[in-house]
Design a protein that fits this description.
Elements (H helix, E strand, L loop, with lengths): L3 E2 L6 E4 L5 H8 L6 H11 L3 E7 L5 E12 L4 E11 L6 H15 L5 E3 L6 H9 L17
Amino acid sequence: MTARLLPGTDVRVRRGRRGDLEALGRVLGVPASGRMVRAYRRIVADLGNDVYVAEDARGELVGVVSVVYRRSLVQGGLAAVLDGVRTRPDATGVLDGLVAFAEERARRRGCRRLTACLAPDDGAVRATLVARGYRVGEAFGTDLGGAA
């Protein structure tokens, strides 16, 4: 898929590449080294994942969206999980555009459902999802620790 502009912005979205890791680390607020480098390389090479980055008119990375695809027996087909969506604080209007982009990608891949995984401090993402009509449900999770 070629890069495309998010509606109402000068931001273009394109598939993430290995060379994006340093800038991506700044957007995510984590150092782009060690374990993150290995994980990112595997994720961008895996066809079960979509990682897209948002670049402003100067070519600077201002956001990222990650979608993971899986087959679901219970949901009756392919399902998608919004693994994460982050933007720089100064990237006005980009968050909603990235969520809409993720929805479109999941739809085009034949997914029947898009579920979002949020951290407790993801207030802006939570507000964006609610504004887009997402319903809050119950999900349980635990940290398994030590998994590499």
